[in-house]
Every structure is written in structure tokens, then in C-alpha cells.
Amino acid sequence: MRRLPKTLVLGGIITVIMIGAALLSRFWTPADPTGMNIMARLKAPGEVGLLGTDQIGRDVLSIIMSGAWTSLGIASTATLVGGGIGTVFGVMAAAKGGWVERLVMTFNGVLFAFPPILSAILLGALLGPGAVTSMVAIGVFMIPVFARVTRAAAIQIWARDYVKAARMAGKQDTLITLEHVLPNISAQLIVQLAIQTGLGILSEAGLSFLGMGVSPPTPSWGRMLSESQTYLSSAPHLVLAPGLAIAITVLGLNLLGDGLRDLTDPRRRQTT
Amino acid sequence: MTSLLEIRKLSRHFDLGSGVVKALDNVSLSLHAGEVLGVVGESGSGKSTLARTVMALDHPTSGTVVLDQRDIFSLGPRALRKARRDFQMVFQDPYGSLNPRHRIGRIIAEPLHLMPDAPKGAERRALVGTLLEDVGLDAADQDRFPHEFSGGQRQRIAIARALITKPRLLVADEATSALDLTVQKQILDLILDLRDRHGISVLFITHNIGVVQEICDRVAVMQHGKLVEVGPTQEVLDAPQQAYTRRLLAAEPRLDVIGRKSRSRP
Ligand SMILES: Nc1ncnc2c1ncn2[C@@H]1O[C@H](COP(=O)(O)OP(=O)(O)OP(=O)(O)O)[C@@H](O)[C@H]1O
Ligand SMILES: [Mg+2]
């Protein structure tokens, strides 16, 4: 057994804990994350509940756990769907070249001009704020990001002699993409998936912070951050808890992505 | 005798912005059925470009390639795919020519995609096993992955793949240069045997004049994308007409070293 990169182990542990907390929140939280209790408002961590309570007496740990579900759910769905569409565009551009490639890349350039905030404002006007608006806004941005990475990686594979051998075997572009290109860029795509999900979480928090994300009472890290700004000095845990949750989750996913990259680096393979 | 392969005024230019590289410059050559034609020339003389273009993996700047009376560049994609079972190629770099994620059996059987009536399952395994033994490997090697094999072994796997459809033309780009003498002899004997039994024609690209002498009926000499000399092997080797060929022959051991160097990978 070769040793796993430290970044992979650490990132993996953080990510598993966050996903575990998100899943657990569907069945169990220490208290009701939406149940207010004015008598026990603004309690410090340890005093009431592990992480204290907020300005209307809700249990902070429960909000953070349910917020993990909201954040991870929206970010990973957006990344998977948007990334999937982008990957299809990327392999198509690499396989066909010519006008197909120019069309795809122009379309990408246009999508890239719509950062999630802008899309969310436009979509919000149509659909109103909410989980779907956030997901679409983030997902649309993932399309060009994945299309670019995929195209660059796929072009390298198309230059390999084993692809030429597949053409000698009479295989068409789609089959070559499925049998030769995708398996050989899958490692890079998984790395991107981890890192981009992290960025998706940041975007989701940003949208919620600005009031364009999921609507109350659904718990959300970004909204909690914005609502607790006024208590920064009196009850700093209300800002720290969601802030750290966001930072640690994004860090975990980035470490995971870096670790996976190290793991699949061919130079590393040869020396071990 | 009709020729199986006719290369007519073939040119391939690469526009690099800073200038144009004439990798192939007005090359005409023909290859008869059952003939082994050697192609020699210094590094960069256009040998691999010739191989790729003849295999229709690359489009020429001008000129045509006629294979078995058909101009391969005027064939539609479907007809070209159909024609491909008749011509196969062994690539120069054994580290780039096998998909690292596929098992050897799948790699060797890939050209069977061209044959609708190709054997499947146990029959296919047996066929791949026989080919592996023909090139001096083990039938059980088909369950292993490319990284488990040396450069020379990979080259033999690539040769097995090129032979599975029983092509009528085999283009071998430095196919045996990475092999040690015994294995090289075994592969050359295999190729000659295929020629004798099935009348396969071979375009044999090499740095090694010794190999040319051993198996080639005729030899073509290339320099800067041009064909400088072509003729029966013994005539060209005994009485080269061009100064370039004489230099090439005199420098043979050195060329061999260059060939080996360019292939050694970390
Ligand atoms: N795709 C390409 N783009 C630009 N230049 C190219 C390309 N392919 C080949 N060339 C150039 O064409 C010339 C011939 O290259 P080629 O690979 O055919 O030579 P070769 O005879 O096979 O050499 P070697 O013995 O080293 O394999 C070289 O100058 C090379 O740099
Ligand atoms: Mg070459």
C-alpha cells in the first residue's frame, strides 16, 4: 500500500464529516433548527446547546447541521449538473474541432460573463429567490468552467497514438471519447468536481447572504451570517459558527481536490 | 505486377508561423503485393509523417495515396472505415500507443471493431492468445495492463494489434528498433512468414540498415521530406547513387544510437 497524500486524508476527513452532518440533519438534530425560544436567546456556546443559541433562541449547532444540507445539496447538485453539461461540451469541442469547437467556446465565453450573482438577480426576478434559483445560477457558471478544463485535457488525449490506433480500428469520435478520452481525463474531472463544489458553496453562501438564496425558514449559513452581523460584538459565536462552517467546508473540498491531484499525478506513480 | 500501394506526389507542409516545414515534399513511391519496402533517413526526414499520411490519419497538403485502386482521401468516412481492415500500423512510440486504462486483450482486439463477423468471448480470447504467442509473449498476458510491460514488450503488443485483422498492408514505424536482437529476429521472421503465407506487404521504417538488409526487397532513402533514392536493397546498399545515402550508410551505428536515445523515456 502506498502512502496517501496528507492533503487527501485531511480533506477527505473534513468532507466526510460535513456530508455526514448534512445527512444526519435530515433525521436528527440536537434541537429543532427552526424552533424559537425567546427565553433562551443569545446564549453562549456550552450554556445552552454545544454552540449556544441565536437572537431568537434557536439552537446554533442544529442550524449549522441543517445549513450543511442546504449548502452541500445546492452546491453539489449545481456542480454535478452544470459540470456534466460542461464536460459534454468540452469533449465535443475537442473531438470535432473546427466550427463546432469555435461555437462551443463562444457560447462558453458568453456563459462565463454571467457570474452566479448576476444570474441569481436575473433569475430571481423571474422565479423569486430560492433553492432552484441558486442551483441554476451556480450551475450555469459551472458549464464554461468544466467545458474549458475538459476541452484542454481531452485535446491532449486526442494527440496520443492510442487514439490514432482507435481511429485505425475504425472507431468514431463518440466511441473514442467514451473508451479512450473520458477514462483518461476522469481523474482531472474528479479533482475539478471537488474544487468547484467548494467554490459552489462559497457562491451559495454569498447568494444567501445577499438574500437571493433559499428562503426562510430553511436554515442557511449565508443568511445566518448576514442576520447575525449586528451581534458581532455581543454574541460573536453567531458569526463565527457559520463563518467557520463555510471556511472549513471549502478548505476540506480544496484539500481533497489537491490530494486527488497528487494521488493521480503520473510522476508520483512512477516513483512509488 | 499491379501495386497495392501507390503514393503519388505526396506533400505535407506544416505552417509554423516562423516558416514552413516541408515534412513531405513531392514523394512518389509504389509498393507491390507481397513486397517489403524499407524506408530509411535521418531523424526528422519525414518518415513518420509519411506513415501517418499513408494511413489516412493525416491529410496531405497535396498529392494522393492509392490503396488497392482506391484513392483513400476521396473515400467517404464510412468507406474509409471499411477499408481500414486492410491496412494497419505500428506506431513509433510504444509508450504512447497503448491506452493505459485498457487490458492487453482489449487493446489487441480493438481492430476487430472493423469486422462485423469477428469472433467473440472465448474464441476471441483464443485468437488474442495465439497472436500474443506469435510475438513471443504469453497468452495469459491479455489480462494485464500496459504499465506492467517494458518498451519492447509493448511494441510487440502493438504489433499483435496491427496483425489481428490480417491486413494486406502493414506500416511499421520503427516497430522493432526498441527490441533486443533475439526478439527482433523473432518479429522479423513473423513478418516474413506472414508475407510468404498471406502475401502481406510491409512499409518498414527503420534506422537500422542491418534490418533493411535482412528483410527488405527494396529500400527508399529520405532526406528533408524528399525521396532521394529508391531501389532494390542490395543495389542501394552496395552502390548508393547519392552522397546522402553514402553518408547515411557510413553513419549507420551512430544513427542507431540516435534512434535509441529518442525513444528512451523517463
Ligand atoms: N504536427 C506537426 N507539426 C509541426 N511539425 C511537424 C509535425 N509533425 C512533424 N513535424 C515536422 O516534420 C518533420 C518530419 O517529422 P517526422 O516525425 O516525420 O520525422 P521522422 O523521419 O519520423 O523522424 P524520427 O526518425 O526522429 O522519427 C520534422 O521536422 C518535424 O519537426
Ligand atoms: Mg519518426
From TrEMBL, chain A:
Its main location: membrane. One of its GO terms (cellular component) is plasma membrane. The keyword Transport applies. Belongs to the binding-protein-dependent transport system permease family. This is Peptide/nickel transport system permease protein. Keywords: Cell membrane, Membrane, Transmembrane, Transmembrane helix, Transport. Pfam families: BPD_transp_1. It is found in: Cell membrane. The keyword Mitochondrion does not apply. One of its GO terms (biological process) is transmembrane transport. The chain crosses the membrane at residues 7-28, 68-91, 103-125, 131-150, 193-215, 235-257. SUPFAM superfamilies: MetI-like. It is a multi-pass membrane protein. Residues 68-257 form the ABC transmembrane type-1 domain. It comes from the Bacteria.
Automatic annotation (TrEMBL), chain B:
SMART domains: AAA. Residues 5-249 form the ABC transporter domain. One of its GO terms (molecular function) is ATP binding. One of its GO terms (biological process) is transmembrane transport. The keyword Ribonucleoprotein does not apply. GO terms for cellular component: plasma membrane. It comes from the Bacteria. It is found in: Cell inner membrane. It holds the Pfam family ABC_tran. Keywords: ATP-binding, Nucleotide-binding, Transport. Belongs to the ABC transporter superfamily. This is Peptide/nickel transport system ATP-binding protein.
